[in-house]
Amino acid sequence: MNLPRSREGTTAVSYPIELEPLPGEAVIAVDPSDAQTEVHGKSATRVIRSVGLNTIYQIGSQVAPAVAALASIPFLLRHLGPDAFGIVTIFSAALVYFMMLDLGLGRAATRFIAQSLEAGQPDDVRRYFWGSIILLTSIGVIVTITCLFAVPTIVSKWLKIPVHYSRAASESFYILFITIPLLTLISTLRGFLEAWGRFPFISIVTGCSGVALYLLPVLAVLMGGGIVGIAISYALVRVSVCAAFAIGCLGTEGRPSLRPIFDLNAVRRMLSFGGWLSVSNVIGSAMSYGDRFLLGAFVGMSAVASYGMPLDVISKVQILITSFCAVLFPLMSRLDESGSAQFHTVYRGAVATGLALMTPLAVAAVLTAPFLMKLWLGARNTLDTVFVAQVFLAGAVVQALASIAFTALHARGRSDLTAWVHIAELPVYCAAFYWAATRFGVRGAVLVWLARAIVDFSSMAMLLRLHNRRGGLATPPELIAAIVSLSLLLIVVLPPRQAWIAAAILCTLTWLWTWRTLLDPAMRMPLARAMFGRRDPAAIDAIPDDRG
Prior knowledge:
Strand content: under 5%
Radius of gyration: 24 Å
Mean pLDDT: 76
Number of strands: 2
Shape: globular
Distance between the termini: 46 Å
Low-confidence stretches: 1-41, 470-475, 534-548
């Protein structure tokens, strides 16, 4: 296969998001030092549409699982009971947690493979791909052996599992722990596909597997499988995902050779980036999912169900931003590799998008939460469950912008900064969560969660502003997001009519600030063209260079 040649004469690999200028098009941003990464008017429109389309693919892959969750969770709760359902929730948290134990090599693979494509170095793609696979396979085996020996201690001492569920819980943990090597391997396989821009394929696989993670447990319960049957269904889904991603990598059209190779220098670069990222992922996951373990250990499984039910479904609200960030990361990594001035422009537009989308969604969900939770859970709905749901929804805005800042920092290669933030947060969060949960129950626990989300977001955003090679905004976006989240909690206590009026005012002010402050005229035109197909023959001048 003949591959195109780069300007330097090295073999270049095409990438699905076009960044190169097109002749005769209106310039949207020009930096004399960024001649190879100029984005022209129509080219910028194409980039926006490409990012938007890939984001829609990603969102679609998670909407179906969200619908499946809405249908299956009440069924499982009704047929299993609070204690058994709490154990199943622990299974779900454990699977997500173990997927993070990849030394950050999955995200590192995305970053370095995308940058190798940008630099026209297909041989480096093979080095980073296999270096990650070999390391993750070894790590997965070691973790599996350790966890298998720890099962008796986990079931009998660490978790308050009722005696009559002890045997089934032990068997289930054994089944799940055997799949750990495949869980860690999925990260690298997906990283390769994301770097190559195969988001439609990724979306199909993740969408089908997400639905299966909720529907197969229902089928297992109907067949009398209990929690052991549910554990088997979880394991089968993860094995299928790993196999599908492996086939996708091998079937990528135009890819360079993927013959096995182990390059020590490539591994060192990935470990340097991925090591800190792994620390951040492990600690971040411990705070995000470990709170359920703390509730199970010190309060009880019923509290885990009250806390976990709304969190599992409300976390689906974040599919908009997580999907957006998954598409942004390889693009921003390429811009960082080329030193493009467009990096800050992309970040600023991403912040604007996050605020504009999440604010109305969170406002509407918070105000309708009492009705929706009652409709969903029926007699099992409680005031505590509604309160927990509203706090999680209020925190969705700061979580969204935190994800964007987190993605930008990693694209810059500063995974060490996010790791240090999480290291500092962990002991404080655990102590505060334990204190609040044991004294105020689920309500105290969820308020501590919100406080941590705001602190985490503010830290990430400010670190990015300090590290950014270009100047910051006059009005910090992190301040606006925090105000929106706190305002949502205040709106809840208002009478219904005043609450809806306040919500409309909050959304309007947020949109106006986003459009006028984050998007300058040169950015608004390609965005409008991408969204509405607007044609304007007038040339657009350069985006202001915000270098300090």
